[in-house]
Known about the structure:
Distance between the termini: 140 Å
Bound molecules: 2-acetamido-2-deoxy-beta-D-glucopyranose
Strand content: 25-35%
Amino acid sequence: xxxxxxxxxxxxxxxxxxxxxxxxxxxxxxxxxxxxxxxxxxxxxxxxxxxxxxxxxxxxxxxxxxxxxxxxxxxxxxxxxxxxxxxxxxxxxxxxxxxxxxxxxxxxxxxxxxxxxxxxxxxxxxxxxxxxxxxxxxxxxxxxxxxxxxxxxxxxxxxxxxxxxxxxxxxxxxxxxxxxxxxxxxxxxxxxxxxxxxxxxxxxxxxxxxxxxxxxxxxxxxxxxxxxxxxxxxxxxxxxxxxxxxxxxxxxxxxxxxxxxxxxxxxxxxxxxxxxxxxxxxxxxxxxxxxxxxxxxxxxxxxxxxxxxxxxxxxxxxxxxxxxxxxxxxxxxxxxxxxxxxxxxxxxxxxxxxxxxxxxxxxxxxxxxxxxxxxxxxxxxxxxxxxxxxxxxxxxxxxxxxxxxxxxxxxxxxxxxxxxxxxxxxxxxxxxxxxxxxxxxxxxxxxxxxxxxxxxxxxxxxxxxxxxxxxxxxxxxxxxxxxxxxxxxxxxxxxxxxxxxxxxxxxxxxxxxxxxxxxxxxxxxxxxxxxxxxxxxxxxxxxxxxxxxxxxxxxxxxxxxxxxxxxxxxxxxxxxxxxxxxxxxxxxxxxxxxxxxxxxxxxxxxxxxxxxxxxxxxxxxxxxxxxxxxxxxxxxxxxxxxxxxxxxxxxxxxxxxxxxxxxxxxxxxxxxxxxxxxxxxxxxxxxxxxxxxxxxxxxxxxxxxxxxxxxxxxxxxxxxxxxxxxxxxxxxxxxxxxxxxxxxxxxxxxxxxxxxxxxxxxxxxxxxxxxxxxxxxxxxxxxxxxxxxxxxxxxxxxxxxxxxxxxxxxxxxxxxxxxxxxxxxxxxxxxxxxxxxxxxxxxxxxxxxxxxxxxxxxxxxxxxxxxxxxxxxxxxxxxxxxxxxx
Length: 886
Ligand SMILES: *[C@@H]1O[C@H](CO)[C@@H](O)[C@H](O)[C@H]1NC(C)=O
Ligand SMILES: *[C@@H]1O[C@H](CO)[C@@H](O)[C@H](O)[C@H]1NC(C)=O
Ligand SMILES: *[C@@H]1O[C@H](CO)[C@@H](O)[C@H](O)[C@H]1NC(C)=O
Ligand SMILES: *[C@@H]1O[C@H](CO)[C@@H](O)[C@H](O)[C@H]1NC(C)=O
Ligand SMILES: *[C@@H]1O[C@H](CO)[C@@H](O)[C@H](O)[C@H]1NC(C)=O
Ligand SMILES: *[C@@H]1O[C@H](CO)[C@@H](O)[C@H](O)[C@H]1NC(C)=O
Ligand SMILES: *[C@@H]1O[C@H](CO)[C@@H](O)[C@H](O)[C@H]1NC(C)=O
Ligand SMILES: *[C@@H]1O[C@H](CO)[C@@H](O)[C@H](O)[C@H]1NC(C)=O
Ligand SMILES: *[C@@H]1O[C@H](CO)[C@@H](O)[C@H](O)[C@H]1NC(C)=O
């Protein structure tokens, strides 16, 4: 008992506090203002705002039937002196109530004025979006007559009925004056007609035939129209040119041609607008028309069948000067329908605003590469985000259109808007130099110098780049709200990036733009896939991978260091990527990112810190694609299904890939020269020294010298070629290491030949110095050849790895065969020499390290060799370099 009383008390207290907080009963209000009791509907400007205002007393007002689509988070009741742009933008909030609900549907509430605000400060009461400086709707309070022209437009009629989810009919009836005012409201494209009318009461099916309808819509210029139609057949309007009769869905005037002087066009347009993608057209028609043939009488108190439709219009052409409806198609209740209506019954089943598209673009200008955009100013007639100054920007004679530009495609402005309008492209939606409003903005283009007049247009080119946001604004630097939106869409990747190459198999295109210390990279596959990965490295293993994929939450890009073939070898890295994007268009994945060339860390424990891009060396790029990726729980399923077969070395500075150019000619020359030197001349010279000693005089020696020197010269030339082509000298690869060693050995030879000690006199034993030298010369010489040959082979291998030249294998085998043939000749010569010696001495004299010229046997002229052998029997160490002594 006590409990229930107690809770009742609490309940009463709660109710009281709720009521009092709403009505703010704490403040006593007088009723002195002449505006107390004033009532008016709001004039809709945007956001499908409808409602009725009543001023209650000196400090509050009441709003009923309030509909509004949500605006920004800062929509307020706003007071202003007048409706003109500077006065209304210079207005002030009149209450601390925020209208930030998602959507208002037939709401009613009381609003308290701020304590320091009184009605005499307010001539215009607006619902105002502070963020976008946007008037959603207003009431003019006719206080001092400055805005004395009443808004005759009513967007609310007495009744409203939903025809479908996107189509409503509103009407007001005046039986005494014999008219009905009908408002057709639909969220439908501007190119669609809205049709509504009465069916012939004698019909129960095929309701269209004999029906009297009104067709309403907007012309291309955005002007509303409403025409009186009569349906004679279930078809589009057809004219018979022989007897000039019409059949189908035709305007009344087409049937009659007003030949009897009867007015057949009896529908009068009252008002029309298109806001937020919703068309509203109000027209008036007589209930009882004087035209009995093509109009049906509307009985105000009877139930009558009405029909309606939405569909595409056929614009006027040379033959017909009317908009004609096309067959609506579609299904019942969506594009067409019928119902029974008694127009004198009160109906209002329209709750809240129609689902509308706030971002509907009425005027769109698409910039193209070569067409200049002529920027002028003109009168504000239909500015998309009212209010606006009286003068606004026109582009190509369109008032404040949405401008669509493509990233990477230059936009040419021809500025003719006058010296007082400086165009700029800004992140700020209002323009007029946001700094002056204490706001921040990013200026993408233009500025004080971007102005010109018709007599001398100023041409400027703006290139939106890949980092330009999707939406920016073109505005004047000196006046707010003269321009409107710029939609920045992705252009062709090839427009947005300076360079591109096709990766292996031509399945993935790699795009990049190099800047001083960063690089922007994009990759796109030609095939559909669930993810796309590119990697820097020679293979999947030991590569830095960038994986882009999309899912329900959008596009993602992750970076990894891969050090094995198993999913567990995939290590997520933390690279400092910026401007990351990944999107999938029809299953084709494009990923984009920007990264510093050198990571800003030097923590050796983190692999990503070693992921340095050096633009001067070719960047090896590989790719992989697969069906599904996730940033958690990677498994075998995430492993690639298609990959590149080989890395493509990308020359970042030159803007090409090496493979695309094939084997570079200079490197080919390098290879050939080195083969000539190390495969023919230098070994030839050594063989000459060993096997041609029999040639009379110093012939063998000359051959030896010529071959070695020319070999050395060609080697040095070949080295220069390689260094010049690669624009630098990198001692990183095995090939270079072998090559350098071989060249050093080879260069030592002429020097030590110069320093060689005296040849021993005939018959004398060689001095130990001489002996040492001989050993040294021979060993370095042969060592050089061995290392040089190794350099040839590693060179070919390198060629294969780095340039992916296809014929590398054949080249390698050819080289192997060449040296095998050479080796077998040497073996043959040695064997033959051994036999000769054996015959001569009866025993082999093969001592390791003691195999010098002593063993040389001239197979071609064995006699001389024999004589020489005879005379040189003194020592096996004899080295015949005597010509040098001369
Ligand atoms: C603002 O309104 C007042 C009164 O209606 C008017 O005198 C004044 O010119 C307006 N201001 C501007 C900048 O137009
Ligand atoms: C409907 O039928 C009646 C009787 O046949 C006729 O008088 C009337 O004119 C018809 N109405 C129309 C609109 O055709
Ligand atoms: C006009 O011609 C069409 C076909 O040629 C015919 O069906 C129709 O009855 C004619 N109308 C008149 C009024 O002669
Ligand atoms: C009907 O009359 C209105 C206003 O008088 C006019 O705008 C419209 O073009 C006319 N329609 C036809 C089909 O002639
Ligand atoms: C309208 O039609 C009814 C009959 O349908 C007739 O009685 C009435 O007089 C008509 N009114 C006008 C204004 O034509
Ligand atoms: C804008 O107008 C200029 C001059 O009339 C024309 O050359 C250009 O093609 C137009 N640009 C676009 C995008 O229509
Ligand atoms: C905006 O005005 C400030 C202060 O006058 C000036 O420093 C700034 O350069 C202006 N901004 C632009 C884009 O001209
Ligand atoms: C901008 O901020 C300064 C200092 O805070 C202030 O004096 C000035 O009135 C502000 N201007 C505007 C337009 O709000
Ligand atoms: C990324 O930037 C942060 C802060 O500048 C730095 O600490 C980190 O080492 C950077 N990481 C890489 C991979 O560059």
